Amino acid sequence: MDVEEGVQNRKTAEGRNEMSLDQGAEDTTRRLSLIYGVDDRPSWGLSFVLGLQHYLTTVGGIFSVPFLLSPALCILPDDPSRGYIMSTIFMVSGIATLFQTIVGVRLPIIQGSSITFIACTLAVLDLPQWRCPSDGDLYAMGEANRTEEWMLRMREIQGAIILSSVFEVLIGYLGLVGLILHYITPLTITPTITLVGLSLVRHGVDMASGNWYISISTVILLALFSQYLRNVDTKIPVYTLVKGWHVIKVKGFQLFPVLLTTVALYIVCCLLTRFDVLGENDPARIDGKMSIVENTEWFRAPYPFQWGWPTFTTSSTLAMLAAVIVGIIESVGDYYACAKICGQSIPPTAAMNRGIGVEGLACVLAGCLGIGTGVTSFSENIGAIGVTRVGSRKVIQCGAIIMFVVAFFGKIGAVFSTIPTPVVGGLLCVLFSVVTAVGLSNLQLVDTSSPRNMFVLGVSMFFGVGIPEWLKLHPGIISTGVLAVDQLFTVLMATPMFVGGFIGFLLDNTISGTPEERGVLAWRQANASNRDASNQSDAYSLPKLRWHRLQKFREELTCLIRRSK
Q1: Taken in order 440, 212, 229, 403, is the CA torsion positive or negative?
Q2: Which of 80, 86, 102, 209 lies at 20 to 30 Å from 355 by C-alpha?
């Protein structure tokens, strides 16, 4: 009995020591029921499987970019250039994600193509000098002239992205982001994050509406796996050198809900296509996208300026500058959302600055490689963390490696692009709803019975939705006589998270209110206990350079040189 008590006491002491490393973050992690926290390191095999799940989450947002931009770039539907652009996006996203998780904000957040940049790109290409000829005229041009036609437009977008992204790099690495963090409050973050999710719902619904039976089945399966079956143990046979073949129990439905849902619905769509159950033009059919796979090369390495040397114009650069400003605000909101959902304290100023700086460098890389859009944090990835409860930085890095490798194999990227649109739409509807819920959860720190707070929240949310919708109904209503200024204000006012976040920021910092009423005091107290703990866990600290390994390598290299002499 004494031995058993001693063993039990030792286990208890070890458990307390482990909790003391990051008690504040662990409390939040336990409350959110995260399986793997930010600093947790699952095995490499499991990390790559979980990383593949995040990769699948980003596919919907990434493969839609070439399809959205191709008509404006004068790329025909059967042109394999769509696959090349998609592979390039995977490479940029993989590199940007690795840098963001290593030397950026260091949160488990994926970098990907931004809807905001796409809107600016379409605005630039809608100018009279860039409007495309008819499809008949494009076919009559011949392949060489058609290629030059769309590359000319891509080079215009590349130059605008490169110049505007330099501004983001300066904002990040000069520390200007940290200057406004003192004024960021729950009533600023709530409309920003909430409108990020709400503004993306339309894109998810549009993709899901192609076949509601498939998309609703996707939602049901995802809810079944991630919620109803999350505590069900799955027996998996594994082999190790110590134990040989044996069976382990894992919560497979909780770990892989997105992956299981995607595979299950993909098989269903294949069967429905094989037996011709679906209509000829049904988006859930698989055979309609096989031409992209057939026309895509097996191996192709994207490289800088592959479409030619970029062109630089003032009007296009100013239009992209609006996307950069909105992207910064959106990314700051995503950092808060990701930190909250991962059980981390508020990212420190230095981490915020590094994150924006890295995003700026990633956008410069995107401009050099030519993907037609910039790079920002992926809201879908944050939603996936909430659904899968896996917030490990290592998992996201493995997902980034998968994206980078897939970029070299055009056929693989093309196969992923055959995932039926309704399946991706169903996944995105659930993930965007989780992002929206994370934004609203910030209200728990605010006095919701205060008329002052209800005014700030209501006005920011209402105009964050109303003004962009009004601009959609009245295109070209902003007319100052200067095209670049028109594009700048149009893009800003058409972005819900910018409008709502800016109004919330302005009202909350100008209308009088006590710190307790505004939630500022609770906001700081809630993270004060976590801040010291997060410093101990080095969640936001840069990785330490292991000088002893470099010294050992230098000594071995010196000995090798001496022997050769």
Answers
A1: negative
A2: 86
Burial class of residue 406, CB neighbours in 10 A (0-12, 13-18, 19+)? buried
Give the separation between CA 282 and CA 262, rounded to whole angstroms. 18
Lowest mean pLDDT among 65-79, 86-100, 276-290, 504-518: 65-79
What is the token pair recorded at 238? 């594994």
Nearest Cα neighbor of 353 from 325, 332, 379, 336 is: 332
Q: What is the rounded CA–CA span in Å between residue 388 and residue 380?
A: 12
65-69, 90-94, 296-300: least confidently modelled range: 65-69
Q: Which residues pair with 248 in a beta bridge?
A: 236
What residue spans define the domains of the chain?
26-564
Structure tokens at 183: 């004024």
pLDDT of residue 448: 87
Length of the chain: 565
Q: Give every CB contact of residue 552 below 8 A, 6+ residues apart in sequence.
A: none
In the three-class reduction of DSSP (H, G, I as helix; E, B as strand; rest coil), residue 451 is classed as helix
Task: Supply the pLDDT for residue 354.
Answer: 92
Closest CA to 41 of 390, 544, 338: 390
Q: Strand, helix or coil at 240?
A: strand
Distance between CA atoms of 14 and 20, rounded to whole angstroms? 10
CA distance 120 to 69: 11
